[in-house]
Amino acid sequence: MLNMPKVVSLVPEVTFKAINVSLTKGWEFKFMENYTENDVILGCRDADFLLAKSGFSIKMSRRIIENIPSIKLIQMDGVGYDTVDIQAAAEHKLPVSNNAGQNAGPVAELTIATIVALQRQIFVSDRDIKNNRFKNIREQLLAKGLAEIQDSRLGLVGFGAIGREVARFATMMGAKVSYYDVFRASQNIEEEFAVEYKPLDEILAFSDIISIHVPLTERTVNLIGEREFGLMCPGALFINTSRGEVVDQEALAAVLESNYLGGAAMDCISPEPPPPEHPLLNLSPEARDRLLLTPHTAGVTRGAFRRMLLNALDNMNRVAKGEAPRFVVNGIKQSRMIS
After folding, report:
1. How far is residue 26's CA from residue 23's CA, in Å, rounded to a whole number?
2. Is 45 one of the catalytic residues?
3. Which of 226, 272, 286, 323 is catalytic?
4. What residue stretches are annotated with the D-isomer specific 2-hydroxyacid dehydrogenase NAD-binding domain (predicted)?
């Protein structure tokens, strides 16, 4: 059992206050907002835990990990863990934990919302009506025909907590859902969520809507590129609420310009924030109407972020009491020695 555990938090103190999360009594917290690798190394001297950020942060690199020997656990503030060198952490027997499943509901909500927004052309309609083009846009949409989720073929790439929540929502709305994941779910899970497993290429070729829900790893960088877009049905919708690096940005811009896709929604792009010359920010007006962007906010509602920070504090408390950490992402199931 640790006496007065010390936490180095890369999450600002104002964030805890804003979502009404109390710091653990009797613990010492050191907050860092603007930091370099050297700052993190120095800040972690004699500390027990490092609360790291899932996004918009310098990477917790091998150099950092090699120089924070007192840290028992790197705890993420969110679900993503691509800002940590998890291999280096594993080599140094340092567990890295995330907050798996804590934001599944909000991400699934936004996924469904963007599907409906693209199917019904909500944002184009709003813009045109405000520009005194009510009759024009109504006639245009009715002539084209508007889709709905019921009877749509939804293909999920990734079937973890978020993918399953999307499946649950979509099947309630009448969609026919299939999925691909490197780890196929059990028959019981497939029956519970009313989904069918298919290889990735079949998901891409036979779905009206493709939604991406995979973590960012070496295997998933540019998982969806020119070849994969070419396999999709003409007019298909493409949704990405995972990580921008999973999608080849140039390939997405090109397929939007070609009018092959019916539309795309991206909650995350690469890099973040995007530079002015980013291909998705320089589309033609017609292609721009087929793209919906949000600023990587699918899983950071107040409620979700509160749940994630509460889970993070609870997980560090488990380790402080000598228990094994939960939601470990790098295979190290036991924390380093507690003195």
Report:
1. 9
2. no
3. 272
4. 113-298
